[in-house]
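Following up on my earlier message about 5-O-phosphono-beta-D-ribofuranosylamine. Here are the inputs again, as you asked, copied directly from the submission form:
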Amino acid sequence: MTAAPGARVAVGVLASGRGSNLQAILDAAARPDYPARVALVVSDREQAQALERARVCGVPAVWANPKDFGDRTAYDAELRRLLEDAGVGLVCLAGFMRILTPGFVRAWAGRILNVHPSLLPAFPGLHAQRQALEHGVRVAGATVHFVDEGVDTGPIVLQASVPVRPDDTEDALSARILAEEHRLYPEAIRLFAEGKLTISGRKVTIR
Ligand code: GRF
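Thanks, got it. Here's what our run produced:
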């Protein structure tokens, strides 16, 4: 299916840092036949490279400073306001280092994706690549999943594996996984935007 430009799904990306996954999404969205566009990037960190990447592409980029809000509920209400004002239909977490409140997650249920650098459900949370190396696994990978109220627990959309080499460092393994993240995330967004994903319970069906 080729979506008409006017019908492209508006994506809001939340990112705290480097923004290489955001870049992969921006690059995909630059292709005329891609069915989604990045409508807004929000970061909780003023210096996030992600904000600069958005600005370079002419995408509205907003720093929402957590210190300006009394608590997580108030902060997430601001996120909701920003996303809704931008007409966002899909929220993508891309290295966003905050846990979203249940109210936010419920408001966007079935419309929030995250990318995680492990083969979930193995190694959720921080430093997934280090966890994988310390555990001694021979295969690691990346996961794109819908976000539920847990940490890295939502229904899985796409996964890709990479080998773990005997002499791997955390940096080397992270780079190998990151290349897969950059491939998977735009693909998962495309499937969502084309209406090809159905969630039933834990399972995501891809048409
Ligand atoms: C990625 O490894 C992602 O899986 C994790 O945080 C990292 C973000 O990297 N959630 P980047 O900011 O997209 O470069």
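One observation from looking it over: The first helix runs from residue 20 to 29. Hope that helps, and feel free to reply on this thread.
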